[in-house]
Amino acid sequence: MTERRGGGVRFGWTELTPAELSLQAEVRAFLAAELGREAGRRPGLGMNGAASREFSRKLGARGWLGMALPKRYGGAERSAVDRFVVTEELLRYGAPVGHHWLADRQTGAVINRFGTQEQKARFLPGIASGELGFSVGLSEPGAGSDLAAIRTRAVRDGDGWVISGQKVWTTGAHRNDYIVALCRTSDEADRRDGLTQFIVDLAAPGLAVHPIALLDGSADFNEVVFDNVVVGPDAVLGDLGRGWSQTTAELALERGGPDRFMSVYPVVEAFLREAGSAEPSGLGEQARRFLGRATATFWVLRNMALSIARAVDRGESSVHQAALLKEMATRFEQDVITALLEVIDIQPVNDSPSVFERILCEAILTRPVFTIRGGTSEILRSVAAKAISAQEQVSR
Amino acid sequence: MTDSLLTDTVAEIFSAVCTDDALRAAERDGFAPEAWSAVAEAGLPWISVPEEAGGEGGDLADALAVLRLAGYHALPLPLAETGVLAGWLLAASGLRAARVPTTVASGPDLAWSAGTVRGTAGHVAWGRAAEHVVVLAPAGDGAVVAVFNSADLRVEQHANLAGEPRDTVHFDGAAPLASAPAGPGVSAETLRRRGALTRVVLMAGAVGRIRDITVRYTGERQQFGKPIGRFPGVQQHVVSVAQQAAMLEMAADLLCAAAVADPGLTGQAAMFQLPAAKSIASDTATIASAAAHQAHGAMGMTQEYPLHNLTRRLWAWTREYGTGTQAADKLGAIVAAMGADAFWPAIASGGAG
After folding, report:
1. What predicted TM-score, i.e. pTM, was given to this entire model?
2. For residue A285, which residues of chain B lie inside 8 Å, CB to CB?
3. Topology at the third CATH level for domain A247-395
4. ipTM of this complex > 0.95?
5. pLDDT of A269-314, one tens digit each?
6. Which residues of B82-95 are buried (b: 16+ CB within 10 A; e: fewer)?
7. Which of A13, A282, A288 has the CB atom closest to B254's CB atom?
8. Most buried in the list A308, B14, B291, B344, measured by CB within 10 Å?
């Protein structure tokens, strides 16, 4: 019946346990002390938050990075929901999460799942302590949404490999320590076969990183060129030729989290802070309606993302839920800024004394990327649509 | 919460009585007597009304689960009105519910004096079909709950966008069958909140059905030699419907849990989640209906095809017990009063703080 149809993309309701709520209180207290008291602090917008190895180390020291990793590798063996609790608070404060973001969100989990004992011992403690920053090398100039078209190639050379090619849109490669690069290791009938993930030191000889300036003046994206980069056999992550399915599993981690609807949350909060105090009699009708709709949507999307984290802890695949959620959540991130602009009468300037106005500028300039990074909306709709109709076939 | 045995059984009953013919007849006649008999025989309208008040017992979670299925099947009966609304008014005020189709009337134009109610109530759901009309009318500083035999009232027939009776009922001083001072927690405001709760839940059911029939149609209908659901342009609508359904189902799940924990709907969580869910219901219904119709093409516009049973109800229900815009305004005011530091904690806790 209702429960069975479209069941592949359903979201079960869940709530935080007392233990999870106490973690939440702990994280809030830490962040309020660490970030909350800084008057006039400019919050970061989601994963665009500043990169601070020092801040990441502090989180690591509290056991709040790589939370699901095994204790023997520095992790806390905690749940995906615990990570969700920490993450949503970091995003809410606009914390400087840039340094650890990708490693904590996905690379640690992938190495833990597919890596060798040696790789785990080598990388996971650094991820859990906030020391190591990782980049993810997927897109290439000729392979964006069509990921199987990648041409960066790893060729056997004795025991090891030689990698040549070019990655693009690689977040943080100019400041991170390692990159996990998806490379072609053989040519097979199905293009999705013959791909392999490699862990490569970003300081390796032959590897060059060129920042790509974006329209807002930021340069966190990079082009990464591999010119005969020599790596050992221990650089191979997981099984040879199985890079596609490993990457697919990784994308679920990348798409289903709170970062997909909270990028501009600090803008809305800053609006409430500044507009609310500027109008002692309260907000105008238009502003109240905007705030109410935004609040309601944050509330529902937040619970859908929490539901995905709970499903991950039950060992369920959430690839399709993540695609469905990311597609609408990132559109919401854009729409909420459009709706906000309709209820205010300002011409925002970048160097305004108002924190709200400054981060509003950033949000306006960066919002087009929300529906592009981590899988374009078009690709996500295709992933979700196949899952929805496949489920219908099964249920009939 | 609710066990699947109950929902499976109820789904079977609703599925059997909500045939295309039955829905058409109900719209023509303003009631579906055979459907009512089957549903009443199973006791479904009186779930969550205590046995000592003439009900079936059971908790609000069960009643809301049944209501969601009623929305899914576009059940043409005063189900929400008989139990969750009228049954609650009666039981809370020490009166007994009768085993007849019942509706509720309330509004600023009604007044209790000299042992009767005078005035007019508009948009009374299923007014002409109800045997009993339970009225909540202001009386001095408080309010009175009174039960009338509808045969004693003047009923002016009107219908909503879905052809469901939304009648104007004139109270001209007839003697009530029973009356009592409104019980603890019963007020025009709490009745309105409870009404909004029923509409969110009904709408969650209806939008879920829209998703299911849209997925099915786009998988079966062929153009250019393949199912239209294989075309990205159509997939976009299917995904949109699925997203909106998932959002409203989540909002309804959360709200139901809050309502079960706080059946009076007076706590902070209910005050936050009711307008939040109502606002979500309004937005998701608008988007999902439009996308579903676009995916169905002209077929979805016909009386023959069942889509309109759901979309017309959504368009009507979304404006009952407050509009989405009013709900957003209310929630915005709540959040603004809490202030910026409490904003995220309110979102994350659903208003519990």
Report:
1. 0.95
2. 329
3. Butyryl-CoA Dehydrogenase, subunit A; domain 3 (1.20.140)
4. yes
5. 999 999 877 665 678 999 999 999 999 999 999 999 999 999 989 9
6. bbbbbbbbbbbbeb
7. A13
8. A308
